[in-house]
Batch of 2 targets.
Target 1
Amino acid sequence: MQVVVNSPNVEYTNKYIISKYDYQYVEAQKEESSIAVNTLTEKLMFRTQRKVPKLGVMLVGWGGNNGASFTAALIANKLKLSWTTRKGNQDANWFGSVTQASTVRIADEVHVPMSHLLPIVDPNNLIIDGWDISALDLAAALKRSEVFPPDLVEVLKPHMEKRKPRAAIFNQDYVAENQKSRADNVLNGSKLDQVKTIMDDIEEFRNQWKLDEVIVLWTATTERFTSIVEGINDTAENLSKAIKSNYKDISPSTLYAYAAISKGCTYINGSPQNTFVPGLIELAEEKKVFIAGDDFKSGQTKLKSVLVDFLVSAGIKPVSIVSYNHLGNNDGRNLSAPEQFRSKEISKSNVVDDMVASNSILYKPGEKPDHVVVIKYVPYVGDSKRAMDEYISEIMMGGHNTLVIHNTCEDSLLAAPLILDLVLLAELFSRIEVKKLESEDAEYTKLHPVLSVLSYLCKAPLVPKGTPIVNSLFRQRACIENILRACTGLPPETNMTLEHKVP
Ligand code: NAI
Ligand code: DG6
């Protein structure tokens, strides 16, 4: 059920939804004893292509816990599967997906699924493929993950066993030593050969299914960070040269992303490593191909980006945040190595910075709460991750407020719906164009290639150079919702509800 807005500012043509929109924003300059503020209005025209493409997604790390769980969920939802649990029958669903399972308020008591605001790909029509360094077929990978109950795994088996991951780019130097035994499905040859194979794979997948669009998403093992080296990965040209000369320190994830961008495919990074070295970002900008990342914001960090926002915006001062996790899946195994843990520690740690910096009453310039992140590998708990957090805050007159949170949850069942949202929203935002009405010869352009509107789904949001990073979950969600509303011709959700307050 699509939302149809009756307004002089909206036009529905066969091809587009066109919406005229006054974007009001503020510029401010801090002066010695005052703040000079200008309110500005930009007259914009949004245009969203109505035709939804036939979309394919290629997962890097397809046979991992997230990849197998996502594939299983896709099939189970498409087939409307139901299975028996100790509590009775369980139907397939997409709980945890903002596009499939959350709603947007249109008017009092009228809420619609977010997916009804603008035409968006139906998950049931999504085609999936991918690569993995482990050759296990997807049915066996699902069993290995120990995420779903055996009954469901058996029902899914005939739908998954023919799906086999393509041979992958592998470099032991980037992941923990303990991942070596998994690598029985890897590409040989130079870096350039490997990039070409990945590009051929994308082309083959596109042709096989007659796809209009292919998105490549990394849900593979967390890599260590790559050094940024002048002359190697600092520009698009240098990165191309480095690949051609088989330079040793180029991560597999950068090679996949390079291949995807070269094929014009959106690339999304679901892990913390710095895949997007400056040269790669430049390449995406040059080719006008979308990129997004980094690291799925699934559980502990998602809550942190709500809780710290709540505390700081309530005038309460978090002074110590200690986040402890233990998990027993292969992700936890890999993160037990120092360099891979360090990548995750970085992406989990920066999430409070903007909220802390926003309140100069609580924090002096540069002051931050103590913030410690611990991850331990405990095989027995498998994919059922434990996250324990302690937040100590200063309250009025020297008082202290300590919050302790214990969260137990299947890690992959939080991540799989985020994979769906990242893919569907990245595709939708790629169909949105905008033009500034007041500039001469205005032409429609796509959004910036660094798709920061997907920050809601990422622990360490990648944003265009020089633009602010927003970590607060509700601000991030409001950003998605309000852009979709603008394209539909709806006003932004201000929550003022003045219609009930002004007599
Ligand atoms: P996993 O270890 O079960 O799966 C990763 C898969 O990637 C494995 O099957 C492995 O064989 C494969 N792989 C490794 N290197 C590869 C390469 N170069 N090319 C192709 N495949 C490769 O891990 P899981 O639990 O599925 O997580 C995947 C990633 O998502 C990890 O980096 C994790 O840190 C990240 N993540 C997971 C979240 C969650 O809630 N589950 C949240 C945030 C990030
Ligand atoms: C240990 O924290 C393993 C990680 O891969 C996390 O499970 C994952 O990054 C999710 O983290 P968070 O903070 O979003 O729950």
Target 2
Amino acid sequence: MVTVCEEASCPNIGECFGRGTATFMIMGDKCTRRCPFCDVGHGRPDPLDVNEPSNLAKSIAAMKLRYVVITSVDRDDLRDGGAQHYVDCINEIRERSPQTTIEVLVPDFRGRLEKALDIFAKSLPDVLNHNLETVPRLYRQARPGADYMHSLKLLKDFKAMYPSIPTKSGLMVGLGETDEEILQVMRDMREHDIEMLTIGQYLQPSDHHLPVLRYVHPDTFKMYEEEAYKMGFSHAAVGAMVRSSYHADQQAHNAGVE
Ligand code: SF4
Ligand code: SF4
């Protein structure tokens, strides 16, 4: 299996691989959504690969990874949104690499949330991550098919069902939001019991994607970070190069996972 880190030529790859951290994308490379900031392909997805969980676990064991982030495309075509496939992956990784910490960065399971959350009871990750991505005012434009309150509910419900598992969410800046809107989303996150935060600069993957409307100044990132700790986040990874999985191991450590 190829890591997202390599496929996306992530600039943090040296640092992350050096720390034994990598991100993998499961359930294919075609998303049933079409978010105009995202570089993932879209269209009718292929059927799930039943061998993917074991192949993924083999790759993780061969790479001797200490911390993995498992993410996926949105699979609105599946009755459980792919929750069982996530659980199958967690099980296989636990079997081959019991010491490896597993973070899942999940889609929104819209229309099948209850079912998906129940399925996770069979095999829980060490961290549950779901990105809000942007402020609610920009959802229609940036996250068509998604719903701000639904995403917050996913995170809150997961935490209520599995209180020992830390929850995490992330935002991009540069899509046209204001600082006050970002701070309000952070407050909403805390009201929905989210413990870890990532905020990074949006970069336009191609001319066909949403334009960058501002490059956020390092002082502003610093302000977000300070506010995050005041609001009670256990960890905040905030900065231009921050991605959802950046320093994921350190974040989890601060949240008491490792
Ligand atoms: Fe991989 Fe995420 Fe690190 Fe980039 S930030 S190298 S995608 S783990
Ligand atoms: Fe990209 Fe996720 Fe949107 Fe799919 S749902 S287009 S993977 S951001």
